[in-house]
Amino acid sequence: MGVTENILASQLECDYYEGKKPDFLAGLAQSAIDNGFEFLSDAQQRVLAPHLSQPCNGVENPGGYHNNCQNVLDGEELVSAYQSQMYYDGLLCQDCQNEASQYIAEWERIEQE
Q1: Is the dihedral of CA 29, 33, 35, 41 positive or negative?
Q2: Is the pLDDT of residue 34 over 90?
Q3: In this structure, what are the phi and psi dihedrals at residue 26, rounded to the nearest 5 degrees?
Q4: What percent of the chain is modeled with pLDDT above 70?
Q5: Which of 8, 87, 62 is nearest to 17 (CA)?
Q6: Is 87 helix (H, G, I), strand (E, B) or coil?
Q7: Positive or negative, the Cα torsion across 35, 37, 43, 47?
Q8: Bridge partners for 74 per DSSP
Q9: Could you read off the pLDDT of 63-90 as tens digits, one per residue?
Q10: Could you give the CA distance from residue 79 to residue 68 in angstroms, rounded to a whole number?
Q11: What is the pTM of this model?
């Protein structure tokens, strides 16, 4: 399975397509996973293409300041973000994952004191 199919599979696993229009997106994504994205028609690929990248959700520090990250996730980075979104409570780029991990470690250290 290629990167594109991995993105689509990750999206299906987390119900990304739930409530999105057009209604057939999930079925189209499943078809791309089963048969390969390259075997979709050009029109079908164009329908899925906007979903193959996502903005980073960014992180909020313990003081409530949000970093307003402007990174766009795609390729392997997007697959990784989907795989870790439950841990970080959102789709995060590597920089924001590192930042969030620092906040988590800091908070754990404070709780142990």
Answers
A1: positive
A2: yes
A3: -65, -40
A4: 100
A5: 8
A6: helix
A7: positive
A8: 53
A9: 889 999 999 999 999 999 999 999 999 9
A10: 21
A11: 0.86
